[in-house]
Amino acid sequence: MRETKRCIPQFTFYDKTGIQRYLEKQASQGWMLQKISCGWVFRRIEPKKIHFFVTYFYKKSIFEPEGSEEQKRFWEFCEHAGWKLAATNEQMQIFYNEEEDPVPIETDTAMEVEKISRSAWKSFLLPYILLLVSFFLHIGSVVERMHYDPLSILADDMDLLILCSWCLLAVYVIREIVRYFFWHRKAVRYAEAGGGFAPTRGVGKIWSVIPFAALFCVAAGMVLFGDSGTSHAFFWMLLMLGISMALITGISRWMRHIGVKAAFNRLTVIGLTTFVGIVMLQQLFMMIIRGELFPGREAAETYEYNGWTFEVYCDKLPLTVEDLFGENSTSFDKRYSYELTEKESVFLLCSEAVQDPRADAEDLPWIRYTAAEVKVPFLYKWCVKRTIDKYAKEDIDGETGHEAMYEIEEELWGADVAYRLYRGEETKEKYVICYENVILELDTSWELTAEQIAVVKEKFGGE
Predict the structure, then answer these.
(1) Which pLDDT score, from 0 to 100, does residue 50 have?
(2) How far, CA to CA in Å, does 439 sit from each of 78, 159, 312, 345, 372?
C-alpha cells in the first residue's frame, strides 16, 4: 500500500473555498497534504475530519527564502491558535486544524479580500497577463502570415494545430482573468455589506481540460507531422525553453533554500534568463544556417560545378517545360532538376513545383508554380483575393516600381478568372489562374504562347 500520492488539482489561485473543501475531502479519505511542488503531494493518515484554512501572505516574494521573520511570526500565531501549517505555495498558505469547531484564522472579510487581491497580482494576474500577451503575439504572427500568404498556412497542419493551441490557451487565460475580476467585485460587495466571504468557484471539469488539450494538439502534430520544418522548429524551441526554465527555476529554488537574499536571487534569475535567451536565439540561428532545424529532402544525385556541390531532384511534376515545348524540348533531357513539395490539410492541398536548369547547363527556360486545391468552398474567394494582393507593391521614391496583378482575358486560359503581374506598364511572366477550386500561381522565364497556355489549361483546367 502506497504511503504517498501526487496529483494536480485544477484550482485557480484565489479559489480558497474550493481548495478547503477538496483538502477536507482528501483528509476524510485518509490523505493529508504534505507539500506543493510539481503537483500536490499527500501522505497517508488515519481518515478523519480535519478543517483546512487557506490564507494569503502577499508580502512573500518568489525570490525570498522560505520562512522570513515576519512569515514565521505569522505561522507561530496560527499555531498558537491551533492551526498547523500543511504547505505553502508562495503567497498561498494552507493550514489545518483537528478541532471540532476551530476559530477561523481570518475574521475580517474585507482584509481577507484585500490580501487575496494583492497576492493575485503577484502570483496569478501578472503571469496570466504576460502569457496572454505572448499568445497574442504568436497568434498575430500566424494571422499576419495567413493574411499575406494564406495558401502556405492553410495547407500546413502543424501551423494550424499550433494556431489552434494558442487560441485555446488564450481563451482559457482570458476566461480566468475575467472570472477573477467578477469574483473580486462580488467579494468586495459582500464584505462591505457584512455578508461574509464570497465563495469562490473552481475552473470546471471541461475548462480544466483545455490546457491539456492544447498540449495534446502540439504533441499530436509533432508525431503526425514530424517531418515538417515548422514541427522541427517548434519542437526544438519547446525543448530548449523547457530545459532552460527548469534550470533557472532549480537555481532560484536552491538559492532560496540556502537563504540567499531576494534581491540577489532576482538579479541572478534576470541575468540567467537574458543569457539563456541570447544563447537560444544564437543556437536556433546556427541550426537554421546549418540546415539542422529545417532538414531538406535527400537529393536524387549531386554534381560538382566550379568548386560547388549542387543537388538534383527527379520528382514527377504535374507540368514541365517539356510539356510546354513539346517536340522542341529534346535538347532539355537530363539537364534539369525537378522538385515537387506537397502539403495537405483539411482545408486545401498545395503543390509547389520547381523545374530549374542545372548550373552546368546552358541558358534554358525554367518554370515554377504553386497549385492549390481549396477544399472548403467559402475560403476560395478569400484565398484568391489574398493571393492577388500579395503581389502588390507601392512606388518607391517616385520611381516606377509599382507592381500589381490585373485581370486578363480568361477565355484564352479557359479559367474562371485570370490575372497577370504588371510593373507599371510592363508585363511580367507571372500569372494567377483560377479554375473552379484550383488557384494556380505560375512563374516562367519566357512569354507563354497560345499553344502553351492550352497545355496549362489541359493540365489544371480539367479539360
Answers:
(1) 93
(2) 71, 21, 27, 16, 5
* Separation of alpha carbons 167 and 138, rounded Å: 10
Using DSSP's 3-state secondary structure scheme, residue 350 falls into strand
Reported as half-sphere exposure (CB side, CA atoms, 13 A), residue 304 has a value of 2
Residue pair 151/348 in contact (Cβ under 8 Å)? The answer is yes
Closest CA to 95 of 123, 113, 74: 74
Say which residue the cell 532576482 belongs to: 266
Examine the pLDDT at 3 and tell me if it is beyond 70: yes
| Mean pLDDT value of segment 165-178 | 90
Q: Alpha-carbon Rg of the chain, whole angstroms?
A: 32
Q: How confident is the model at residue 352 (pLDDT cuts 50, 70, 90)?
A: very high
Residue 268 has pLDDT above 70, yes or no: yes
C-alpha cell at 16: 480558497
Give Dmax (Cα) for the chain: 100
- Which residue is associated with the grid cell 534554358? 364
Following DSSP, what letter does each residue of 236-279 receive, concatenated?
HHHHHHHHHHHHHHHHHHHHHHTT--HHHHHHHHHHHHHHHHHH
229: enclosing H helix or E strand? helix 229-257
Q: Tell which wins on pLDDT, 378 or 461.
A: 378
C-alpha cell at 179: 472570472
Q: Is residue 373 a contact partner of residue 348, using CB atoms and an 8 Å limit?
A: yes
Q: What is the mean pLDDT of residues 400-418?
A: 83
Task: Round to the nearest angstrom and report the end-to-end CA distance of the chain.
Answer: 73
For residue 25, what are the contacts with CB-CB under 8 A and spacing of at least 6?
none
Sign of dihedral through CA atoms 237, 242, 243, 249? positive
Q: What is the DSSP string of 413-438?
A: HT-SEEEEEEETTEEEEEEEEEETTE
Q: Could you identify the residue written with the cell 457584512?
A: 194
Give me the sign of the Cα torsion angle 348, 157, 224, 227: positive
- For 41, residues 6+ apart whose C-beta sits below 8 A from its C-beta are 4, 5, 6, 33, 34, 35
Q: How far apart are CA 109 and CA 192, in angstroms?
A: 9
SS3 179: helix
DSSP state of 328: G
